[in-house]
UniProtKB/TrEMBL annotation:
GO terms for biological process: L-histidine catabolic process. GO terms for molecular function: urocanate hydratase activity. Belongs to the urocanase family. This is Urocanate hydratase. One of its GO terms (cellular component) is cytoplasm. The keyword Transport does not apply. It catalyses: 4-imidazolone-5-propanoate = trans-urocanate + H2O. Catalyzes the conversion of urocanate to 4-imidazolone-5-propionate. The gene is hutU. Residues 433-636 form the Urocanase C-terminal domain.
Length: 661
């Protein structure tokens, strides 16, 4: 069968042959057994409902084996035979170009070069799923191939509920992931209900089909590292950044360190993903011996090198060894998946990777104990370095949150706050998000590198023109992004689709998008798909990350994210998504995203202006109401630009009046 025929087939009438388990592929760890015997039966019933009754006797044994062996029913037999990657948009069988664009993005999320565990349909973060099983993938792609521009596909946590009548200006797809009743949003709830096949952890851009490989976080991390060094008034060159994690998102750190110009040491326990990053060129060197690492770092410091070094081993050993050897760390952080601490997101020190995986699956309580002991030891080592002048920040991966729950010494004297800031509190919030700057991205649906080069040039020209008249408050942000986009081709950031990211405000996003749309109309470039990371100005309510610099008490509310996705849906987004969970953990965040297809039409021009303006200024207005000075400046400027925007502004209160009570 051809690729198009396989897509249109959906769930096949005749079962495909059983596929061998490919050990060379990076697979998800076994999930812990959490279902009762009756719940296991329910999980099997739930899985079998995708198939004709004639297949049930064969599949029930197979699915029971998967549940026992892996803790989940992935339906490996249904994995397609064709290569998984983002094809040029014309190669998809589709009645709707918008639907074809979504198919392209789904396949990009599952590309072996992009996805962390492609056979388990997990894009990044250890559990960030596009779908829960391969039947969902096949059925979704079939629906997208069949849909027209007056239908909307409804996605319930990976399950395609079906095509519903709508209209051409409605979203083509509406996605929800993990939207639990609040009392059922603990980590074990995810384990249970995901094993039952009724919900999934969409992370952020995994379950909303907008991941573009580690390039997205490379940019954000580059800005974070640059501004981190600015904060401590040091040049990156010759100075040391220490962190950990080389997986789907964290793998960007060494590349970002190279772009920023510092020495980066990044520890990782998984040998497969470490080798992948080395082969990709995202790290310069791999070292497996601590003494050798010390020698290499001292040499890099002496020569003021720009270099990224992966240490294959546990990060705790690195922090402790550098303390013993008096190696000064300038910037320190951590980007292991501590939103997922008990299922492969963070590994205990003193155990091999294989030993830890075995304990995780077969003795989860002991594994949890070892993880928490390691977190206490990790924090103790960090505290020794910060006492010597290291600037440590939480990278929004729930490191401080889980360390505090483990009883580590990470709390401030007031017993409420953490002793170290999150990077949003100190860096990204006041420097970027409050002013409306966030991770705007686009994908060239033609798949042509020359189209990406043209869009880079268009975006750079737009930014340089805007910068000429930008106020002083945002000149640094503009300059950083112009420098980024000029070096984008040289830094070879593309993994998977022909995609690009840069931080832009509402003005920049709309003007860049309009310039793209005009170029498409003139047939200078092909179709472009717009999107953003959920880690943005408006899309995410996350008290320990995206909204950690909201100090009016509302950082634990989720009104902004919900309003964002509702507003995007009727202002012109091609697809919208809203998730429970994300980079800081299940039950800890609500986050939403969008995708928008530009086809050169007048309708696309109208939609982009309406939606992109709202998508950014919704968040600025919320940050302004929280009394963030940068956001007050930004929303006042936005109201001057757009007469139809009228936002409630806060009145400040003198501290003396409050203190007089």
């Amino acid at each position: 069968m051809t690729f198009k025929e396989q897509i249109l087939e959906g769930i096949p009438e005749q079962l495909p042959s059983v596929k061998p388990f490919e050990k060379e592929i990076n697979h998800a760890p076994k999930r812990k057994a959490i279902l009762t015997k009756e719940e296991e039966k329910l999980a099997l019933r739930n899985a079998l409902r995708y198939f004709d009754k004639k297949h049930h006797k064969i599949l029930i044994k197979e699915f029971k084996n998967e549940l026992d062996t892996y803790g989940r029913i992935y339906m490996y037999r249904l994995r397609p035979d064709y290569k998984m990657y983002a094809r040029p948009i014309e190669e998809y069988p589709a009645k709707s170009k918008q639907a074809a664009a979504i198919m392209l993005m789904i396949q990009n999320n599952l590309d072996y070069a992009v996805a962390q565990h492609p056979h388990e349909l997990i894009t990044y973060g250890g559990n960030g799923g596009v779908f829960s099983n391969w039947a969902q993938y096949r059925l979704t792609m079939k629906y997208l191939a069949e849909m027209n521009d007056e239908q909307t596909l409804v996605m319930y946590s990976g399950h395609p509920m079906g095509l519903f009548p709508s209209h051409k200006n409605a979203p083509r797809v509406v996605v929800t992931n993990g939207m639990m009743i609040p009392n059922y949003s603990q980590p074990d709830d995810w384990e249970k209900f995901n094993a039952l096949g009724v919900t999934q952890y969409g992370q952020m851009t995994a379950g909303s089909y907008m991941y573009i490989g580690p390039q997205g976080i490379v940019h954000g991390t580059t800005i974070t590292v640059l501004n981190g060094f600015r904060k401590i008034k040091k040049e990156p060159k010759g100075n040391l950044f220490v962190t950990s994690g080389l997986g789907g998102m964290s793998g960007a750190q060494p590349k970002a360190g190279n772009i920023a110009g510092c020495i980066t040491v990044c520890a990782e326990v998984n040998p497969k993903i470490t080798q992948v990053r080395l082969d990709q060129g995202w790290i310069n060197e791999k070292i497996t011996n601590l003494d050798e690492l010390v020698t290499r770092v001292n040499k890099a410091k002496a020569n003021k090198e720009t270099i990224s070094i992966a240490y294959l081993g546990n990060i705790v050993d690195v922090w402790e060894k550098f303390d013993q050897e008096n190696i000064h760390i300038d910037l320190g952080s951590d980007q292991t998946s501590l939103h997922n601490p008990w299922a492969g997101g963070y590994y205990p020190v003193g155990l091999s990777f294989e030993e830890a995986n075995d304990m995780m699956a077969n003795n989860p309580e002991a594994f949890k104990t070892e993880v928490q002991k390691t977190l206490r030891r990790h924090a103790k080592a960090i505290n020794k370095h910060t006492a010597k002048g290291t600037y440590f920040f939480d990278y929004g991966n729930a490191f401080l949150l889980e360390a505090s729950r483990a009883g580590a010494d990470v709390m401030a004297k007031n017993g409420v706050d953490f002793k170290y800031p999150s990077y949003v509190q100190d860096i990204m919030g006041p420097m970027c998000f409050d002013y409306g700057f966030g991770p705007f991205r686009w994908v060239c649906a033609s798949g042509k590198p020359e189209d990406l080069a043209k869009t880079d040039a268009i975006a750079c020209a737009v930014l340089e023109e805007i910068k000429q008249n930008s106020p002083e408050e945002i000149q640094q942000q503009m300059a950083d992004n112009i420098q980024w986009i000029k070096g984008a081709q040289e830094n070879k950031l593309v993994v998977g689709s022909q995609a690009r990211i840069l931080y832009a405000d509402a003005e920049g996003r709309a003007k860049i998008a309009e310039a793209f749309n005009q170029a498409i109309a003139k047939e200078e470039i092909g179709t472009v798909i717009l999107g953003r990371d959920h880690h943005d100005v408006s899309g995410t309510d996350s008290p320990y990350r995206e909204t950690s610099n909201i100090y009016d008490g509302s950082r634990f509310t989720a009104d902004m994210a919900i309003h964002n996705v509702i507003g995007d849906s009727f202002r012109g987004a091609t697809w919208v998504s809203i998730h429970n969970g994300g980079g800081v953990g299940w039950g800890e965040v609500i986050n939403g995203g969008f995708g928008m297809v530009l086809d050169g039409s007048k309708e696309a021009s109208t939609r982009l202006k309406s939606m992109l303006f709202w998508d950014v200024n919704n968040g600025i207005s919320r940050r302004s109401w929280a009394r963030n000075e940068g956001a007050i400046f930004a929303i006042k400027r936005a109201m001057e630009i757009e007469p139809n925007l009228k936002v409630t502004l806060p009145n400040t209160v003198d501290d003396a009046i409050i203190d007089s009570l």
